[in-house]
Amino acid sequence: MENFVKVCLTVLTIWNSFGTEMVIVSAEGRSSGSSYFVFQQPAYPRDCKEVVNVCSSTHNTSGVYLIKPDGYPEPFEAYCNNDLDAGGWTVLQRRRLDSVNFNRSWKDFRNGFGFLGSEFWIGNEKIAYLTNQKRYQLRMDFENVAGETYFVTYDDFRISDEWGKYYISSLGTFVISDELQIEWCPANKIFSNETCERTCEDPDTCISATSRTESEQCVCVGDYLRQQEQCIPRNQCNCFVDEKGSVLTEGKYYINSRCTRNSTCRNNQLIIDQSYQCSEHATCDERNNVRKCYCNNGYEGDGVTCTLIPKDCYDLYVSGTRSDGVHTIYPDGWPSGIQVYCEMESNGGGWTVFQRRSSASVDFYLGWSDYKDGFGDKNQDHWLGNKYIHSLTNQKTYQLRIDLQDSASSSYYVVYSTFSINNEADKFRLSYGSASGTVGKNGLTGSNNTQFSTKDQDNDGWSSYDCAERHRGAWWFYNRYDCRRDYSASQCRSNCPSYSDYCILFPDGSDNCAYCAYSNLNGDYDGSTRGTNIYWYSDSFNSYGCSLQYTDMKIRPV
User: Fold this and answer.
1) DSSP string of 319-357, one letter each residue
2) Is 89:48 a contact under the CB 8 Å cutoff?
3) In whole angstroms, what is the distance from residue 239 CA to residue 267 CA?
4) What would the mean pLDDT of 445-457 be, rounded to a whole number?
5) Which range is least confidently modeled, 26-30, 311-315, 390-394, 482-486?
């Protein structure tokens, strides 16, 4: 578009072009605060044209004069422009420097506001009386930022009274000056330097100002959005949502306040899903300025469908998974999940396995970081990892089950009513409850509240021995038994080699032996050196538990 101008000074004037009525001026004077002529007789000039005709002493000077249109109760001040053409123009409005606020109420525009010497609106009530007493011409004068001036005129201007809402009842023929050709903006657009024009298709994004070829042009602003070349009200855009009161962009959705309806904008058309409804495991909520159905804690999904986020194998079992195998679970602190072996087909199902020994295929004589992170094959022999066992056992209350099988293929088990380990800062300290089962003696006796030890971290509290090294394993070891502490050297020299529970005892010279716990399920699978075997001390087993062929440790919520 070309030849657009910005109005920074606008003067609206009316001029009586069809005769005058004579009024005799007998005196001229000034009142304090304003300049005007005082007439000694009761008749006042009805407009500025009569001021020029009557007041010869004005010398056609522009300024403020008293006028009184027919029927108007009292005379009032008006600014008369006598410098334009032959003069006699009654100025209705002037705007120059934005010093007066024109964003005003009906009452202000009815009565008038501003300052006659600068910016003002004379008042709709005065204009109504003025324009209904004679036939008037309306002239609008403009000046753009370059200082260029031009004007337009209407040869028959008149407005109604307040009862008619000051309706423009007549305009007449429109004439434009030759100085500059005006090009009007299309309907619902305004001429502006506005840099944020929006469209129906993308009402949230401003059209970039850098894409404009002119600093000023006709744009859609306010409650109008562009649709192709037209500006239309927001509520006429195809993706307008009544409840939201605005337009959706392509691909976006809006959920109503009760989460019972989903409105989506597709191909600039509003698609409404009346069947939208929250899952029984979801809540209708607004988060980060987005209202929708949100799955409750422990569940995942789009809010309409929510599935349980399994924190352990028991959650998977409850949700319908009933086959043994490796599955992904999401304990607290592990949002990406971890893989574990789940025992689903025996012992009631839902057990999360964290240790298994069935052969010598996996070396369990490893260091702290290995036991922390885990090692082995989840489908076979492995240690899950202390950091995972800690997270698992501290998110709910768990019971521990240990299954054991001796060299005669006899099976035993023990169940602890509660089980957990603390964090790494506390060296994965053990805590468990009461024991029950078929294994006989409690192999964890004495290990309660002890810290975990590996070959490179001695946390057993026994200064005389590094228990993890002597037993070639990693366990909750402690200061359990030392022969020379309780017996004489000769007795220990005689008895240590002959004890039937020899696999528990590791030798200490020729006249002593010791052991650090009643169990060590992470020792050598078939240790050849005394005290290094897997063992669980109990008279229920062959050789007091020194010949275990299978172990596994697993947890399930209480």
Assistant:
1) TT--S-EEEEE--TT-TT-EEEEEE-SSTTS-EEEEEEE
2) yes
3) 9
4) 97
5) 26-30
Sign of the C-alpha dihedral, residues 203, 209, 213, 214?
positive
Contact between 518 and 444 (Cβ < 8 Å):
yes
The Cα–Cα gap between 380 and 378 comes to: 5
The helix/strand/coil state of 131 is helix
Q: Please tell me the distance from the alpha carbon of residue 285 to that of residue 265, in angstroms, as a whole number.
A: 21
Enumerate the H helices of 74-211 as residue ranges: 106-111, 124-131
Residues facing 272 on adjacent strands = 263
Residue at token pair 């019972």: 260
pLDDT tens track for 16-40 = 433 222 222 222 222 333 333 343 4
Please name the residue ranges forming H helices in 176-326. 313-318
Coil/strand/helix, residue 170: strand
Which residue(s) pair with 343 in the sheet?
351
d(C-alpha 121, C-alpha 111), whole Å? 9
The H-or-E segment that residue 393 falls in is helix 386-393
For residue range 336-368, what is the model confidence (pLDDT) as tens digits? 999 999 999 999 999 999 999 999 999 999 999
Tokens of 187: 């309907």
